Every structure is written in structure tokens, then in C-alpha cells.
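Work package 3, deliverable 3.1, input record:
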Amino acid sequence: MSITPDWIALDWGSSNLRAWAMKDGRAEANVQSADGAGGLIRDGFEPALAELLGVWNVTARTPIIACGMVGSRQGWVEAPYHPVPCSPLAQGTTPAPSEKFNLQIIAGLRQTTPSDVMRGEETQIAGFLALNPEWDGVICLPGTHTKWVQVSAGEVVSFQTYMSGELFALLAGQSVLRHSVTADNWDQPTFDFTVEEALSKPEKLAARLFAIRADDLLDGTSPAIGRARLSGLLIGAELAAARPYWLGTNIAIIGAEGAATPYARALQTQGAPATIADAERMTLAGLTAAYRTWRDAR
Amino acid sequence: MSITPDWIALDWGSSNLRAWAMKDGRAEANVQSADGAGGLIRDGFEPALAELLGVWNVTARTPIIACGMVGSRQGWVEAPYHPVPCSPLAQGTTPAPSEKFNLQIIAGLRQTTPSDVMRGEETQIAGFLALNPEWDGVICLPGTHTKWVQVSAGEVVSFQTYMSGELFALLAGQSVLRHSVTADNWDQPTFDFTVEEALSKPEKLAARLFAIRADDLLDGTSPAIGRARLSGLLIGAELAAARPYWLGTNIAIIGAEGAATPYARALQTQGAPATIADAERMTLAGLTAAYRTWRDAR
């Protein structure tokens, strides 16, 4: 028996597409594909969605609420950024031009000084605030482009993006360091020590990267140590730059376990404990909040 | 009429192979190919060299003096690193196992604390010191892996490697910033300002990279500005870490014009003027010094 959803929650990022069939306020099923927005031309979005949702009974009237890069300038249709400070879903949704689907896309957020943008994270923040309505503090969303977000009275006040995730991927996968950091495991004391070192002398960062390779060449240092050092250097440098965000405040980390744990650990070594919230659950809660707002406004 | 060299100078790096036919103390001709050491297996070195030198009259007795990655562990034969402090050519040369060529490979240098290695740059430093025998100070050799080298009384005292060049290539070519930094030109005031900013607040580096993309998205900032900012951030961060090297001393930069000029400019803005020495000329002078030492020792 095929599922007939009340509405569909859609997380359409750069490299992945995921849908949840929502029925009576709960996710009854979910499907995903590799048709991320980054790999699609404009005419490719509707067929990709049709293929993904083919397993369910979906009509042109079924509400579909989406977040992520599907709403970027290179996406299906641009859902313009809303300026902060504002509540994370302040802008409402933009309908996709489709005869086949009733797709509503959540807008991203932008900040003028310093310049910054987010798209997708606003939905996770909305989900977190829906589940923790009185919460004030700073939310860290680790990923390819990690966001630090100051939240107060239900609004995003300011935020800052860090490229540490992308830098790690480039350095570990393609630089001369790749020979010295490829490991399945990870030396925790090295990570802790390196974070501490990067935070206390951030001006030394540039001098420390190549030492990972040199230590391997001269002393045969293990890749598990090399990997922990590279991650520790990058996360330590990020924490040094983000210190005004996280110092002396509540901290929540929204992320998958692999991404969130090193941040939580690094913050812990600085005497700044953080709560970890599951990224998927926050996305779903945020899409649900956006769906309710959209529905109630009709 | 084909050339019969007295000896051959060879610069065999990771990605290029270049030879000069030396006759009566001067380079009479040069040839090059893309057969860098990074792309060759062990059995591939001799044929690659034979192909390159085919245009000249070379016998199995013609001395060939080589520097660069040809002497690494993955090269033709390992020419082991010599520990600093020492004169740049302290180790002498290691012969390649060949019936066809009389190839002598210059050893690299290593440093124990902090761990570091160089291979190829020692020859340029030797060339610089051959041309400037009384010179003391710091030599900067910009490139994929930039070296800062403290030189005193004809010896390499200490050195430090920075990955700024490789980071620039990865970020400008493959990261999300590639959309915002691809330009033929370059905004000089932006570079100067960014270097200054990175030097005065090095802990902010991690926060400033993504702003290059955000400024482009929100304000349409030109790629010439984006490119100058990315380079200024990375060189500024390097200068912050290398400050103990360059502060209050003689500075020479050995590099091709495109690589050396931004470093010279950045140092100038800090009131630290640097002399630029041509990389190719230094390589040739260093190979010549190594040849004479080898010849005189026989």
C-alpha cells in the first residue's frame, strides 16, 4: 500500500536530496537521492523530484516544503535572502514554477556587515528554536562551511561562516599532507593539544601545517596523529576567530555525530560545554514549523 | 652543429625537468620537459633524461649535477637530507645508479626541531651565497611550499616551510571561492590593506575567507578584489607566523617575478624592504658551485 502524505518535507542541498512523507504530524517514510542542487540545471529539478517522489501518492496540490540550495540563484528558483536580525523563517517561502508540484522554498538569511549568507541552516535553527523556545545563546552548525549563529529572543542576531570543513577536505585529500593524514582512527590527546596550541598562538597556524608532513618524513609520525593535528589546527584556528561568539554563553551544536563531536570536544577543552542536537531532527522540526506557518497563512 | 657540454646543470623538480648545457663556465643552451619527478616511477627517470638530452652530445662520462625531487625517496635514488645548521651543499652529492649517465644528485636539508625539510631550495641558497659571499640575513623562497631560511656565516641556521602557495591554488581553483577570485588582474590597495589586517589580527584569518564569497554574492565585489584579498590573507598570515624570521634583518627573496613580487610588496608595507634575486639564476649558480666542489674532490 503506497503512502499518501499530508505534506512532504524536503531537504535539497548541494549534493543530496532527501524527502520525508509527513502524515498526522509524523514522518512516515523517507527517501533520498544524489540529485543535489549543485549538479542540476534549472530544467533538471522537476524531473529529479518526480523521480524521488514516485514511490508515494503525490498530487499537484500536496504541499512540499523545501530548504537548501534548491532556492539559490543557481537553483530551481531563487528564494531571496532575508536580512538579519530576524526570526529564522522571517521571509516565508517562495513557490517553485511547477505545474506538477506545489513546492514552497524557504529563503536563506544574509548579513550586511560583515557580509555573510546562509541557506539551509536557518531551517535547522528554526527547528532548534521550535523545540527549545526560550533558548538564547550561540548555535554552531559544523559542515563544509561551518556557521556560528548568535540567537536571542527567537531571532538570528548575527552569524559568521568558516571554511574549516572545506579546507580540511582539500588539505587532507589533495595537498602534500594527504600522504600523512589518511587514517580511519584519530589520536585524541594530539587533537586536544593542537586545539589548545592553535588557540593560544593563532598567529602560528601557517607555520604548523607543513610540520605535519615533515614529522611524517623525518620521524614516521602516524597518520592518526597527522589527521588529529590537521583537524585540531583548523578547528583551533576557527575557535580563535569565533571566540567572541562562544565565550561565556550557552552553546548548541547542530550536526551529525562525526561533524559535531570534534567541535564539542574542542569547546570542552576550553571550559565551554556545548549541547549537541541532531541535524536531521532539527531540519525536520524546522520544515514542520515552516509548513505550519505557510498553511496557517492561507 | 650539436653542442658538446663540459657538464650539464639539471633542475629536476616535482613537475618539471630542465637542463642547461654548460661550456666554459656558461650556459650555452637549455632544454626542458614536463617529465617532473612527481610523475615518474623509478625506471622512468633514465629514459626521461635520455629523451631530454638527446639534442646534445652527452657521454656516460659527462658530469650531470642535479637538484630537486629527483633525489627524494620516491625519486631516482634517495640523496639523504643533511641536518642544519650546515652550509647549503654540506652533504655533497649522491650518484644515480645509471650506466648511461654520470648523474650526481644534491642532497636536501632537514631540521629536527621543529621538523622541516627542503630539497632544491638548498641549491638556490648556495647560488645566492656564491654570488653574495658575505651576506647574512633571511632568505624567502616563495612557491607551492614557501621557505623562510635564516642564513649566517655561509650556513643555513634554521628554516620554516609554509603551505600558502598550495593553499592559494586549492582555494582559488577548487573551493567555493573559485567563483569569486578568478581574475587576470589584481587590486593592489586591497592586497595591501588585507595583508595589514591579517598581520594585525591573525586570529581572525579563519573568519575572513568566506567573506570573499559573501561579498561577491551580496555586493558583486569584483574578482580582482577577491583575488587580492585571498592572496593578502594567506601571505599576511604567513608573515605573521614568520615574523621572528624577517623582523629587523636583511631579507632576500629568491623567486620568479610572479611569486616574488607579492611577498616583496607585503614586506615593504611592514617597513621591511627585500632584495629580489632571480630563481633561475640562483639555481644555476648553485648547481655550478656544487659542480666545482664535486670536480675538485676527485
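Residues 120-283 of chain A form a domain with the Nucleotidyltransferase; domain 5 fold (CATH 3.30.420.310).
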